[in-house]
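Revision sheet: structure tokens.
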Amino acid sequence: MEYGQIVATRGIAEEIERSAVFVTEIAAAFRLYQQHDWGELCEEDRLQNDEAVQIGERVLAAYPITKGTVWIITEWDRSVTTILFPSEY
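Predicted:
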């Protein structure tokens, strides 16, 4: 899957500045994402993501980390992948 430009929201960027542990957690979450491990989603959403990878739809994954849940979203056109807290959506 193509990821396009990889960006982070302000909240994610601020936590990256503050915490090396957070950086490690984000990197681990992104590695899972690259392996098509969608984190903590229901089975229906996991299957929808698997299909979205094949047909070019939007992909969203959710990973629990020490600061709460982090989402990673790749847009349908693969132009951008955003790492964000759900509250920043």
